[in-house]
Each structure stands twice: as C-alpha cells, then as structure tokens.
Amino acid sequence: MKKTLNEESSSRIGKGDPEIRALGRFKPDREWYPENFDWYLKWVASMFVMGSLMMRAAGVEYRMFDLYLGWVGIILWTWVSVIWRDRALIMLNGVSFFMLSVAIIKEWAA
C-alpha cells in the first residue's frame, strides 16, 4: 500500500531532508493550524502595521496608537517569519519589536 504525502512526510519531519523537499513539502507538518494559517496571519499583521502607519500620518496626538498597533503587527509578523523560517524577516522583526518596545517604555516614562 502506497503512503500518502502526509503520512510519508510526517514520519520524517523535514529538517532540510531533500526527499521531503522533492515531495513538494517545504515546511514540516504542523497539525495545530490549517494549511493556509500563515496566509491569514500575514494579512492580519499587515493590517495592524498599516493601521499604525495611518495613526502616524494622522498626527502626533495618535503616537501611542501608532506604537501599539505597530507593536502588535510586528509580533504577528515575527510569528509568520518563524513559520516561514525566514531568518531575514526574523531579524528585521526582532529588531523592530525591540525598538517599538523601547519607544513604548519611553512614552510611559514621560
């Protein structure tokens, strides 16, 4: 009996296994989220980041909304980049998270 793609790939979760890549599987099986979970997550994260930019454009009086929306968007984009295993995005969002956190702390202290 021939194994299905899911059965075959779940027996060897893909730490760079060329056989799994040849089967068209680029990410390891993650049973806890649907197949296109990262697609929805990246769009929700992008909406938060765009909301942050709108608050920034609206004026200085909306600075805290800008920081909070950006902070949530960056956290969600960090999650997406971890799912995608994209080191450049992980680094970019990690640094952005740190910088926004510092800005939020400075605003609280002021």
Question: Which regions are unreliable across 5 or more consecutive residues at pLDDT < 50?
Answer: none
Per DSSP, the total helix count is 5
Number of strands: 0
Q: Roughly what is the average pLDDT, rounded to an integer?
A: 83
Based on CA inertia axes, which overall geometry fits? Answer: elongated
Taking the sheet with the most strands, its summary is:
none
Quickly give the structural class. mainly alpha
Structural overview:
By secondary structure, this protein is mainly α. The chain has 2 domains: 1-29, no CATH class; 33-109. The protein is built from 5 helices and no strands. The chain has helices at residues 5-11, 18-22, 37-58, 63-84, 87-109. Helix 4 (63-84) packs antiparallel against helix 5 (87-109). The longest helix has 23 residues, at 87-109. It is elongated and about 55 Å long. The mean pLDDT is 83.
Task: Please write out the topology.
Layout lengths: L4 H7 L6 H5 L14 H22 L4 H22 L2 H23 L1
Helix pairs in contact: 3-4, 4-5
Provide a compact summary of the structure.
This protein is mainly alpha-helical and 110 residues long.
